[in-house]
Amino acid sequence: MGEIVLAAKMTHVPTMLMSEQEGPIKGKRQAAIDGHREIARRAKALGATTVVICDTHWVINAGFHINANTRFEGLFTSNEFPQFIQNLPYAYDGNPALGEAIAKAATDRGAYTLCHQLDSLELEYGTLVPMRFMAREHDMKVVSVAAWATVHDHDESRIVGEAIREAIEASDEKVLLVASGSLSHKIWANKDYAANNGTFTISSEFNRQMDLHVLEMWKQGDHATFLKMLSEYAQFCCGEGSMHDTAMLYGALGWDKYTGKCEVVTEYFPSSGTGQTNVIFPV
Known about the structure:
two-stranded antiparallel sheet, 8 helices, 35% helix, globular, eight-stranded mixed sheet, alpha/beta
């Protein structure tokens, strides 16, 4: 019987890649990189064979979608930030069987989901950035779940999360489940970015205070209260991908019955106006 052995909410800011390049960002995101590697080390110690990543950079406008090819390999340049992420090499094995099982379970539960094995369907950087650093510690098969859901509500994404758990438990896989996205996500206005040192600051003090409050709730295990405010938090603080990655994570962990006390492995930091962190959800 398979199981989720570890779960995490993880940042994927492009500046993590720039942090390893010569220039003004060099070294500035080392804590976030170290957080990714620590999560991978723990997953390795728990015997993880596959990572399922709910990716808030994969936008969908109908149904739900899973990228579960046999093999992912190529060079990635971001449409959003081609100056930050260009010609990023990647090569990872996939897990088509698990992806198909998740899609069937979600569809059976009422959330219509398609699983794809298409060489031309690229992974997005919400998957590739975490894999870039986690792969240095542990080699895992990858399944990417679209989590920038524009015409869906959080209850539907909760169903997808429940399906992820059901499919994993019916498999032989030990899985690291990742919600790949920020907390608040109000990127600086283009005209205000440079004047506010945008790469290293947050655009809204209200958002920063809300993010810090949410982290305290997670550390205390007060997930039931957080879920009562999830939709408004995502709306008013511009949660990345409307925080459907987070809804999927909670769906897999038992929603408001989950009481685990979270561990912040990378202290909260601002990036381009948004709020970022790496947090482990114990299972």
